[in-house]
Amino acid sequence: MSDLFVLFNGYSKMSSDKEMLANCSCSLIIGQHNIIVDTMTAWDSDKIIKALQFHNILPNMINYVISTHGHSDHIGNNNLFLHAKHIVGFSISYKERYFLHAFDQGERYSINESVEVLPTPGHTLSDVTVLVKTNEGTVAVAGDLFENSEDIETPSIWKSAGSENPILQRKNRLAVAEIADWIVPGHGSKFKVTQEIIDSLRTQLVD
């Protein structure tokens, strides 16, 4: 088992007709490997370092950096973690070395017995979700596959956030909900998966 801590809850809202305020959720996984998922914007380095210090973690103690996709609010502080292997969407690298993995064929990437990376394209065509086995069940750190808990009943929320393939995104939203007990969305608070949520996502799949 691993421990998962949401260091910061993401958010997204329009502040005017031409401006949006947004930042992603940032999570820390402590276990066989120390992992940070989605490193926020480039202006958040001090916040992340202080949050890690609260858990007695220094940047050089992080083994993996995982960005659920390559948008700027999810990769902004990846370069704080130069001792880590980096997974950005479907890309796995360490320094100049790139490791080939068949994410595009639906293949999961196992980090250890508690943590694996699942390809979940939709928001972008190379989105991934991190599945973590914890004492409270399986937690899916899903990035922008889910914007927030409200987008279950109001799908226009995730659609308006941008989706490169809405059909795939619908399928992967249901697939993740069916295997997770909790979801950490890209721009909201962690929420519990209920049968009502699964039923709603199934209905949307055939709409």
* Radius of gyration of CA atoms, rounded to a whole number: 16 Å
Specify the CATH architecture: 4-Layer Sandwich
Q: Strand portion, in percent? A: 25-35%
In whole angstroms, the N-to-C terminal distance is 38 Å
What is the tally of beta strands?
Answer: 15
Main β sheet profile:
7 strands, mixed
Total separate domains: 1
CATH class: Alpha Beta
CATH H-level superfamily title: Ribonuclease Z/Hydroxyacylglutathione hydrolase-like
In terms of structural class, how would the helical and strand content be classed? Answer: alpha+beta
Uncertain regions: pLDDT < 50 for 5+ in a row? Answer: none
Helices and strands, in order, run as EEEEEHEHEEEEEEEHHEEH
Domain Metallo-beta-lactamase: 23-187
Catalytic activity: a ribonucleotidyl-ribonucleotide-RNA + H2O = a 3'-end ribonucleotide-RNA + a 5'-end 5'-phospho-ribonucleoside-RNA + H(+)
Main location: cytoplasm
InterPro entries: MBLAC1 (IPR039344), Metallo-B-lactamas (IPR001279), RibonucZ/Hydroxyglut_hydro (IPR036866)
Structure description:
Homodimer. It is found in: Cytoplasm, Cytosol. It catalyses: a ribonucleotidyl-ribonucleotide-RNA + H2O = a 3'-end ribonucleotide-RNA + a 5'-end 5'-phospho-ribonucleoside-RNA + H(+). Helix 4 (166-179) packs antiparallel against helix 5 (195-206). 22% of the residues lie in helices and 32% in strands. It has one domain: Metallo-beta-lactamase, Chain A (4-Layer Sandwich). It contains 5 helices and 15 strands.
